[in-house]
Design goal:
There is one protein chain. The protein is mainly α and 290 residues long. The chain is 53% helix and 11% strand. It folds into two domains: 3-126, no CATH class; 140-289, no CATH class. Helix 1 crosses helix 3, helix 1 (3-39) crosses helix 9 and helix 5 packs antiparallel against helix 9 (250-289). The longest helix is centred in the C-terminal third of the chain and has 40 residues, at 250-289. It is globular.
Length: 290
């Protein structure tokens, strides 16, 4: 074969590879769209999605949806590099059993996303996973967490009684009222949800705000936040999902779920930062005693 033939052969091979990857990306996009439609139509799948999303709050909504529909029983998920950071490694026999997802390119100058794989913790081995310490009543951690959560309220917070709940967003007076007679965990759970309502109302700028229509979003944010910190919280009323998402294109459904994830993650990360300094301070004190 001549050099010219080798060049032509490589060109044909490269083109075939590009077309194959394009087809794979298209198929994965179609699967993601189908998964998002199912999740936002069937209440039981919405709840299952919410559990997996809450336990993997750093993963995009689209990738969580893709994982759900490719991997039964997934709990803690991530890329190979994620598991390496946890001191764990994907088992050789599981390397071909990951869930196909979209991941950012390693080269920061390259735009868009590439196809990658997520693996469940059950497919890995290595250091034991650290279980998060739940927030407990009457502790400095809970006090710090509540203070940090209050800072995420887009409206003033007031004190009141006989609300019928630990906290309640007042859409008329644009404030959240808290009844301090309830326990800290109850207040945390209710406040996380009511902040979701307040965000949806956007300080009164959202003239179409209706509490019933924002219930699923608000409860989803509160639920994910509470699950992250081990605070008891009622599961969202998912029965309205199909009505609320009726007429939405798959892309819009994904963006809506992603917005909920980001809201829960941002508040959760802020709470984590408020708790960590106290833990580090106690560590320094123990070292000083030694």
């Amino acid at each position: 074969m001549s050099i010219s033939d080798l060049i032509k052969s490589k060109s044909v091979s490269d083109q075939a590879r590009v077309e194959s990857l394009r087809a794979e990306r298209g198929n994965l996009s179609d699967l993601r769209d189908a998964a998002l439609e199912e999740i936002t139509t069937r209440p039981e799948l919405y709840q299952k999605f919410l559990d997996l999303q809450a336990d993997n709050i750093s993963c995009s909504a689209g990738n969580v949806a893709l994982t759900m529909f490719q991997m039964d029983g997934a709990t803690k998920i991530g890329t190979i590099s994620f598991w390496h950071e946890q001191g764990r490694y994907v088992r050789e026999e599981s390397m071909k059993d990951g869930a196909k997802v979209f991941v950012p390119a390693r080269n920061s100058q390259r735009r868009g996303y590439l196809m990658g794989d997520y693996y469940d913790v059950s497919q890995t081995t290595g250091k034991p996973m650290k279980e998060p310490v739940p927030l407990a009543e009457n502790t400095a951690r809970m006090e710090s967490a509540l203070g940090a959560l209050m800072n995420y309220s887009p409206v003033p917070i007031t004190e009141g009684q006989e609300l019928g709940a630990p906290a309640r967003y007042d859409e008329r007076n644009l404030c959240i009222t808290i009844d301090p007679s309830y326990g800290e965990a109850e207040v945390f759970s209710a406040l996380a949800t009511e902040i979701g309502y307040a965000r949806g109302h956007d300080k009164g700028r959202n003239m179409d705000f209706d509490r019933r229509d924002y219930q699923l979003d608000a409860e989803s944010i509160g639920y994910m936040l509470c699950r992250r910190f081990g605070v008891d919280c009622k599961a969202p009323q998912t029965g309205e999902a199909a009505r609320l998402y009726e007429g939405y294109e798959p892309t819009d459904r994904g963006e809506a779920l992603e917005a909920l994830r980001k809201a829960a993650r941002n508040m959760g990360d802020g709470i984590e930062r408020s708790i960590q300094p106290r833990q580090q301070e106690r560590g320094r004190r123990r070292q000083g005693i030694r």
